[in-house]
Design brief:
Blueprint (H helix, E strand, L loop, with lengths): L1 H32 L13 E5 L11 E5 L2 E5 L7 H9 L7 E7 L4 H8 L7 H4 L1 E7 L8 H15 L3 E4 H5 L8 E5 L2 E5 L19 E5 L2 E5 L5 H10 L7 E3 L11 H7 L3 E8 L15 H7 L6 E8 L2 E4 L4 E6 L2 E6 L10 H6 L4 H6 L1
Parallel strand pairs: 3-4, 4-5, 5-6, 10-11, 11-12, 12-13
Antiparallel strand pairs: 1-2, 1-15, 2-3, 7-8, 8-9, 9-10, 13-14, 15-16
Helix pairs in contact: 2-3, 3-5
C-alpha cells in the first residue's frame, strides 16, 4: 500500500514537472516569436515616407524618408533631369543640405540617373552632402549613366561620405551595419537578397532590399525585385506582416508576387509609376500598374496609391506625391493631388478590371 502511494506521488510530481517545463517552453516561444505582438513595443516614433513624382511620364523610383533629424533618399530616377524635380521637393524638408542616408537599389537608369544629373542639370550628389551611401553589390551593366553614378558617388566619398554595399551591411563588414538606428524606436534593416552574391540574368534581382521597423509596424522596400528574388527573400529572411509595401518594379506583372504578399500581407501599397504609359509595352494590361499586380494585391488591401498618370502625350498627377505618415502609431496617407485609392480613380475604371475583393470592399 505504501509503495502504491509512493508511486502515485512520483507520478503526480512528474506531471507537475512536465507541466512546468511545458509552460517555460511556451513562454519562451511566445517571447521569441511573439505571434500576437504581446511583447513587441507599439509604434510610437514619428516618420514620414514620401513617394515622389519625377517630372515626366516615365517609370522611376525616388522615395524620401523623414525621421526626426535624419533625411533618407532611396533611389533617384527616372531621368537625369529629374534631379531638379527631386531637389525642388526636398528643399521643403532637408534644411541642412545633408542626406544622412542614400540608398541606390540597383543600376537601372530609372533608379540612379538623377544622382548623376547631366551637363545642364546638377545631380543629387552635387546638390547635397551625404553621410552614408548604400548600394547594390552586383550589376551586369556598364552604361554611361552607371559610370556617371559611380563617379559622383566616389566624389562624395572623397568629401567624407561612407560607402557600403548592401552585402557589407548585411554581413556587418568594414564598418557597415545590418541594422541602422535612424531614430529612437526606429531601425532601418538591410535584408539578405540571394542575388547580392549570385548571378541573375535580370538586373532587377540585384535590388537592395530593406525594411524599416517602427515597433510593431514595418515598412518594406524591395526595389524592382522579381519573382525569383522575392522567393529567395522569403526563404532567407524572417519577414513580418507589413503596414506598407512599396510595390515591386512599379507594379509590374513580374513583381509583387503571392509568395511575398502572402507573408507580408500589406495594409498599404504605393506604386511609383506613370499609369498607362507605353514606355515598355503597348499591351494595355501590362502597362504599369498591371492587371496582374492589381489582381494579386487586391487580396490583401484596397489601399493602393499611384503617383502619376498618362494624359494624352504628356502626364499629370494621379495621387501626386504620396506621403505615408506615422504619428504616434497612427497612419495617414495623403497625396499632393488627391488621396483617392487606385480602385476609385477614373483611369482604373476605364483601363482595368476590378477584382472581386475590391468590389466587395466598395
Amino acid at each position: 500500500m505504501a509503495k502504491r502511494r509512493e508511486k502515485v506521488k512520483i507520478r503526480i510530481r512528474n506531471y507537475w514537472i512536465f507541466a512546468l517545463v511545458l509552460v517555460i517552453v511556451l513562454v519562451g516561444v511566445f517571447i521569441c516569436y511573439d505571434p500576437f505582438n504581446w511583447f513587441t513595443p507599439k509604434a510610437t516614433a514619428d516618420i514620414s515616407i514620401h513617394f515622389l513624382e519625377l517630372g515626366n511620364k516615365n517609370a522611376g523610383d525616388c522615395i524620401y524618408i523623414k525621421c526626426r533629424e535624419n533625411d533618407i533618399l532611396v533611389d533617384a530616377g527616372s531621368k537625369r533631369t529629374s534631379a531638379s524635380t527631386i531637389a525642388n521637393y526636398l528643399k521643403n524638408y532637408v534644411t541642412d543640405n545633408k542626406l544622412e542616408y542614400v540608398i541606390a537599389t540597383h543600376a537601372d537608369q530609372d533608379h540612379i540617373s538623377a544622382f548623376a544629373g547631366s551637363s545642364s542639370v546638377q545631380g543629387i550628389f552635387d546638390r547635397y552632402d551625404t553621410d552614408i551611401i548604400i548600394d547594390f553589390p552586383k550589376t551586369n551593366k556598364n552604361t554611361q549613366i552607371l559610370q556617371d553614378y559611380y563617379a559622383k558617388r566616389d566624389a562624395e566619398v572623397q568629401k567624407g561620405a561612407k560607402h557600403y554595399s548592401a552585402l557589407e551591411c548585411y554581413n556587418n563588414e568594414n564598418g557597415a551595419q545590418r541594422v541602422w538606428s535612424i531614430s529612437d524606436g526606429i531601425q532601418l534593416e538591410i535584408l539578405y537578397n540571394y542575388y547580392y552574391e549570385n548571378y541573375s540574368a535580370d538586373e532587377n534581382n540585384y535590388s537592395v532590399c530593406f525594411i524599416i521597423n517602427n515597433g510593431d509596424q514595418h515598412y518594406l522596400f524591395t526595389g524592382d525585385l522579381e519573382e525569383s528574388g522575392e522567393t529567395k527573400l522569403v526563404e532567407n529572411n524572417n519577414l513580418p506582416r507589413c503596414e506598407l509595401f512599396k510595390a515591386g518594379h512599379h507594379g509590374s506583372k513580374t513583381s509583387s508576387n503571392t509568395v511575398l504578399l502572402d507573408v507580408i500581407r500589406p495594409k498599404y501599397s504605393v506604386v511609383c509609376c506613370c499609369a498607362g504609359s507605353d514606355e515598355y509595352t503597348s499591351t494595355p494590361s501590362n502597362q504599369f500598374p498591371t492587371q496582374a499586380y492589381i489582381d494579386r494585391i487586391s487580396k490583401y488591401t484596397s489601399n493602393v496609391y499611384v503617383t502619376t498618370v498618362v494624359d494624352g502625350n504628356s502626364y499629370t498627377s494621379m495621387n501626386g506625391n504620396v506621403v505615408f505618415k506615422v504619428d504616434k502609431g497612427n497612419i495617414t496617407v495623403t497625396g499632393s493631388n488627391n488621396t483617392t485609392p487606385l480602385k476609385d480613380t477614373q483611369w482604373f475604371k476605364e483601363n482595368r478590371t476590378c477584382p472581386q475583393e475590391w468590389k466587395s470592399a466598395a
